């Protein structure tokens, strides 16, 4: 998962028999969605990380847009799949019981059994686009932004989360997917909750996301439960690590192999 990000001229590693191939980028929240579902479903997989600034030629053979996540099956003649929600739905459908884990365990579907509830959950995931948009706006705020501008964006971000606070309260469960374990909605929105606290490291007290969302009691309790989840732990990175990567991205010099360099 923390392997070198491949670049122009690098060959594509051979597929591993019996394993899904996920083309990813270690700091991409959309790619993390796929990693979360593969981990939650106990699906054997391997990861090939892609440098998104100098993309290797082979990624365009898998995905015309050269984006991540892209999913490829060993020996699959049907090609590859891409777009995070499509990839995640596919894994949930094809591995309905986690049987590929080979350990006798059974992982139920992460999407709701009721077609109506599944549709409502997808609407909720789509509504989360408002949060991802504000997160990106916060990341790309110019350095000369005023305190008032920063605080206004922070308030807009908290406001965009209130529908999710309300929905979780209405469901009366620990997770959007129920009381026992996270479901598809939980995993699709988690990557941004992992990254949002990093804004305070860039903007200081003017963008203290953790303090600003103290009014969101349901989501705060949900976040504490999510961070204990084994699938989340498998790909989790601290706010400090996300801040270091995002600061580089803001400057146009992101270090995709940051985790490898930090070991040197």
UniProtKB/TrEMBL annotation:
Recall the GO molecular function terms of this protein's record.
glutathione dehydrogenase (ascorbate) activity; glutathione transferase activity
Biological processes annotated in GO: glutathione metabolic process
Q: Which residues form the GST N-terminal domain?
A: 18-99
UniProt xrefs under PROSITE patterns = GST_CTER (PS50405), GST_NTER (PS50404)
Q: Name a GO CC annotation attached to this entry.
A: cytoplasm
Q: Which residues form a coiled coil?
A: none
Q: List keywords of the entry alphabetically.
A: Oxidoreductase
PANTHER family associated with the record: GLUTATHIONE S-TRANSFERASE OMEGA, PTHR43968
* UniProt family annotation: Belongs to the GST superfamily. Omega family.
User: What name does the UniProt record give this protein?
Assistant: Pyrimidodiazepine synthase
From what organism does this protein derive? Folsomia candida (Springtail)
């Amino acid at each position: 998962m923390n392997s070198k990000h491949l670049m122009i001229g690098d060959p594509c590693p051979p597929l591993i028999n019996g394993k899904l191939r996920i083309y990813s980028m270690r700091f991409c929240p959309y790619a993390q969605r796929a990693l979360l579902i593969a981990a939650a479903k106990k699906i054997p997989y391997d990861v090939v990380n892609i440098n998104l600034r100098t993309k290797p030629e082979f990624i365009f053979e898998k995905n015309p847009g050269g984006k991540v996540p892209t999913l490829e099956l060993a020996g699959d003649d049907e090609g590859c799949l891409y777009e995070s929600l499509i990839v995640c739905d596919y894994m949930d459908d094809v591995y309905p019981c986690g049987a590929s884990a080979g350990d006798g365990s059974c992982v139920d579907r992460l999407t709701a059994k009721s077609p109506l509830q599944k549709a409502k959950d997808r609407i909720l995931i789509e509504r989360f686009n408002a949060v991802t948009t504000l997160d990106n706006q916060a990341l790309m705020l110019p350095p000369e932004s005023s305190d008032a501008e920063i605080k206004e964006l922070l308030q807009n971000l908290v406001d965009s989360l209130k529908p999710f606070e309300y929905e979780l309260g209405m469901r009366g469960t620990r997770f959007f997917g129920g009381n026992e374990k996270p479901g598809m909605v939980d995993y699709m929105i988690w990557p941004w909750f992992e990254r949002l606290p990093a804004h305070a490291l860039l903007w200081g007290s003017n963008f203290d996301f953790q303090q600003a969302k103290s009014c969101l009691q349901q989501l705060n309790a949900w976040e504490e439960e999510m961070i204990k989840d084994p699938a989340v732990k498998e790909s989790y990175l601290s706010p400090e690590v996300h801040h270091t990567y995002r600061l580089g991205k803001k400057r146009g010099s992101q270090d995709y192999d940051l985790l490898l360099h930090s070991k040197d």
